[in-house]
Structure formats: structure tokens, C-alpha cells
Amino acid sequence: MRPDEIHVIYGTQPLTMVKDLLDQMKAADHIDQGMKIALKPNLVVAKPSREGATTTPAIAEGIIQYLLEHNLRNISIIEGSWVGDQTARAFKICGYDEISRKYQIPLVDLQKDDAQNISVQGQSLKICKKVLETDYLINLPVLKAHCQTLFTCALKNLKGCIPNSEKRRYHSLGLHKPIAYLSKALKTSLNVVDALNGDLTFEEGGNPIQMDRIIAGQDPVLIDTYCASLIGYTKEEIAYISLAEQLGVGMGELARAHVVEYNRDLQNGTAFQPSKKAARLAERVHASDACSACFGGLIHALNRLEENGQLRQLEEPIYIGQGYKNQVLSGLGIGNCTSGCTHYLKGCPPSALDMVHFLETAKSPIK
Ligand code: SF4
To answer: Which residues face 136 on adjacent strands?
Structure first.
């Protein structure tokens, strides 16, 4: 496993997917026996993961099984929910109490932990002590949109590792700068992203978009740059990613990344269950057996176009899905399956960012 690697596995069975992924990455080779390992999910609110806000518990469970199978037993699950909720409630409602009982893994409520002052290049930060005592931090963010920072994933998930008073202070500072400095102070050893069904617009969920994949890598800047592209953003649009890169936290050049994909052939169509907003965004989309990884990306791309006021200018029909393979169609195609369209975007699946660029140039009918 090298820092420039991004590992992506597709599917709908998170427990087996994440174990396969860690096996492929040989993750255990990087962890010494006796190391204090902490899993940091995103349990920002006390809502089950199906609502798009919190980390799917089966991902944490799969990682725990993998670690135990490799005789790595010094494991805890740590989290501090947002100021408006109690971590203990989130542990229970999100399914982590059950995991804790089943595997005898302690749950650490960081809202109740003491904090330590850390200085990072002149910035003073408070970080929960239990996190600082960790030898190997496994960050388990959810890939989703955020109403203030637009996007949240690996870097921003670390905000659960600070006291509530500090969370309030970050908001008064506009979030981006303190998040970037926090990522400089707190090294993640591994980032395993829940990109199964993160929310379309808000960090608290309610509008989950099926994306059916788990993404892993060492470098949180690279992981965030890649994941931002999956919901239609560049790293330059998310200020804290660029700032973290400038601070030397990691490298955010996708062109230099080595992306390894697993189970791509196992993607299947028809699984996508559009929410009300997703259905509205997809009004002009013709989908036939579209893989959810592809269709989910398109929903995010259409949402970006709507935010930019460009969606209404799109005049041509959009086709997506395996049902359009080998068909000649008049309109815009998304993905390799639609190569018979007048214009189509290559990829299987293409990123939402590529879809945004493709649809932006197509918003006036292509001559
Ligand atoms: S291009 Fe076709 S096969 Fe590939 S992800 Fe999209 S719908 Fe699925």
C-alpha cells in the first residue's frame, strides 16, 4: 500500500467488501502487534446509516473481523457526535453498541474526554486525549455533501475528535482553515470511506444517494480529492482540501494517483432507489439498468448543475445504463454503455466531476 494508491470496491455487501479490500491492500502488514488501533466512524447524528449521514456499521464490523483475524486486538471505536446530539445515543441508534457487545470492543465517547492543546504552525488547537494516544487511526468517513463546506469526507471527519467547545470555535472561524490545520495535527493511518449511500446535500442525511462502493487509501488529501470528484467537485472548490495540501498533509493530484478497482464487473443495474429530490433532478434522464455507482454520480452532477443555474438549460435527453448498450440514440450518453448516443461520456463509471464538465458543454445543443 503506497500513499498514492486509491482502492475502490463496488458492491452492496459492505462487510465482505471491506474485508476483501483490506486483504487486497494487505493492510495488516502495516500494523504492528500491540498498537492501539482506533476506528473513527462518522456518527455526527443519531441516525441509522440508511439515511445517508452516518458510517454503515457493517464497515466497522468488517474491519474489526479483519483485524481480529490478523491477531490485532487492541481496538476501540472513538467518536464525538456534533454539538446537537449525544455520542452515546448515536452509538446505540447507529448500531455500534451491538458491535461493541459482540466483539468486546470499547466505545469511547470523545464528548466526555479531556482535551490537550496542540500548536500547529502557529495555530492553537484542542484535540481529545484518547485520539492522541492512538497509534493507528482508521478514519471511517461517509462521502456526502455538506451545506457549509459543500463536501465532507476524510479530512472533515476528524472534527469528531475535538471537544464540543472547539467545534463551536471552528464554526466561528469558517471551518476550512481549522479543519486543514487539524488534519496536520492528527495523522490518519488509513481512510476507509463509506461511499454506499451518502447524502446529496446535507451532512445530517435525509436524502441518501446510492453509490455502492467503499474507497480506501492512506492519504486523506488524495482520498478527499478523489471523493470530491465523485460528487462533482474539484479540490479547488473545497478550500480545506487545498489548504491541507499546502500544509503538507498529502498530495491532491489525481493524475498522479494509482486507482485500483475491484468488483467492477459485479456492478449491476436497477438497484437505484431515487429519493424525491433525486427523482426530480433525473426528470429528463432515461435510465435502463443503470448501475447505482453511475446513476448516483449523475444525480450529484445534476445537482451541481442545478446549484450553478445550468440545469434548466440542458435541452437534450440524457441516457444512462446497460440497457442502452449497442443502441443508436439521439441525445447525451453517460458512461461506456451509451457509446451509441450522439455524444457520450466515456467511463465505467465516469466521475460526477467529468459528468458536470460534459453536461456543461452540452447545455447548449451540440452542433
Ligand atoms: S457505464 Fe454502464 S456498466 Fe459502467 S457503470 Fe455505467 S451503467 Fe454500469
So the answer is: 37
Q: Is 290 a pocket residue for ligand 1 (Cβ < 6 Å)?
A: yes
Ligand 1, closest atom to CA 291?
8
Composition of the chain by helix, strand, coil, percent to 5: 40, 20, 35
> Which position has the higher pLDDT, 199 or 362?
199
Distance CA 70, CA 364 (A): 56
What number does the ligand 1 atom closest to the CA of 290 have? Answer: 7
Instruction: Tell me whether strands 190-195 and 213-217 are parallel, antiparallel or unpaired.
Output: antiparallel
Domain 5-265, what architecture?
Answer: 3-Layer(aba) Sandwich (3.40)
| Residue ranges of the chain that CATH labels 3.40.50.11440 | 5-265
By the 8 A CB rule, do 288 and 272 touch?
no
SS3 annotation, 201-250 = CCCCCCCECCCCEEEEECCHHHHHHHHHHHCCCCHHHCHHHHHHHHCCCC
For helices 352-362 and 220-230, give the axis angle rounded to 10 degrees.
40
Q: What is the per-residue pLDDT across 193-221, written as a single tens digit (0 to 9) for each? A: 999 999 998 888 889 999 999 999 999 99
Summarize pLDDT for 125-140 with one digit per residue, the tens.
999 999 999 999 999 9
- Give Cα 137 distance to the centre of its chain: 17
pTM, two decimal places: 0.92
Among protein residues, the one whose CA lies closest to atom 4 of ligand 1 = 348
